[in-house]
Description:
The protein has 394 residues and is α/β, with parallel strands linked by helices. It has eleven helices and 13 strands.
Amino acid sequence: MTNKTTNTGLIDGFYNNLLGPLLRVDDGFDAEKVTKIALTGLAHMSLRRNWVGIANILELLSNDLQRNDVRLEQSLFGCRFKNPVGLAAGFDKDGVASGLWHCFGFGFAELGTVTFHKQEGNPRPRLFRLAEEQAALNRMGFNNDGAAIMRRTLESQSLPLPGDRAAVLGINLGKSRVTPLDMASEDYAASLELLAKFADYVVINVSSPNTPGLRSLQSSTSLKVLVDRLRKFEICPPLLVKIAPDLTNQSIDDLARFASEISLAGVIAVNTSLDRFGLEKRVLAQSGRTLAEEPGGLSGVPIRCRATEVIRRLRAIAGPKLPLIGVGGIDSPQTAWQRIVAGASLVQVYTGWIFRGPQLVPGILEGLLEQLDRHGFDNISDAVGTEVPWIGRE
C-alpha cells in the first residue's frame, strides 16, 4: 500500500509562501546562506529527533512526504533501497542532518563531498541561481569541515548501523586541494579509514570541476590505483565512482568497460558541467558577468539531455549488471522516469529539489508508481533500461 498525504498544506505553505519566493529569482536571498540556515535547523532536529516535540514534527513531515510501496524497493550492491529517489551530494556536506533525510521521502541520501583536510573552498560568491532556466552555477570547491569532523558528527547522530536505516546513506569522498595529485589515493584512503563504518556505500568523486586537476583522475589508470588502494581496507563499503558530463563519448564507453572489469559497485552520472549549453551570454544578476566569464559547474535543467545521454551510453556498454545512478536536471516524475528507462536504477535530485520544493520527491514517487501500473511492471527494476515512453493521463 502507498502512504497517502495527510498534511500537505504544512509543507506547501512553508515552501510556497516563505522559502520558494526567495529561490524563484536570481538575485533573491543569497543561495549559500539559505542552505546554511536550512542545514543549521535540520542539524538541531537530527540531533534531537527523539525528543517528543521534534519527533512529532518529523512524523508529520514523514506523513506528508514518504511514499512506501514494495514496488519501489530494490536491492543494489548490498543495500536495500526503499525507493529510487535520493538526495545528491553537495547539500549535506558534513552529514549534520544524516538522521532525518528519510523524513523528506528520500530512499537514500549522499553525504559530502568530504575531504580528509578541512577546507574553506573557493572565495565567495560561489553559488548562483538561474531561476528562469531552473539551473545553478557553483564553484564551491569542496568546502567542508574534513573527514575527522564528519566522523564525530556521525557518531553524535547515533545512527542505526548500515543496513538497518530508514534511508541508505552514502558518503562522497573528494581529494583535498592541498594534496598533490600523485598522493590522491592516500588522501582518499585517509578519509575512508575514518568514515567507512558509517557508510552504506562510498563514492569516489573525481569529477568536480572546481578542484584543480581532479578530473584527470577519471582515467582508467588513475581510477584503478584509487580503487585498489581503497579495497585494501578490511572494511570497505561498496565503491562507486562519480563522473563528469564533459567526458568524450569514447571516454564514457571506456569507463563503462573499466567499471565492469574491476567490478565497481556502480557509476553515478553526472556531476556539474563546464559546458554552458548555449547559455554563454546569460548574465548573472549577482555578478553582472556572463556564464561564459564565470568559472564553475552548471547544474539543473540545461544539463538534463547530456546527463540522460551519458546514462544511456553507460548502460549500452556495461549492460544491466552495473548499477547506475542518474543525476542532473531531474525535476519531475517524467524526467525521473526518462532517466530510469535510459538505464538508471536510482536517481538523485538537488537543484530541482531546491527550485521545486519538498513535494518534488513524493510527486516523483507517485508518478513512477503510475507508470508501473500503466506499463504493467511489478517493480521499478523492471523498467530500468527498457526505453519505454512516459504514458500521460488520458
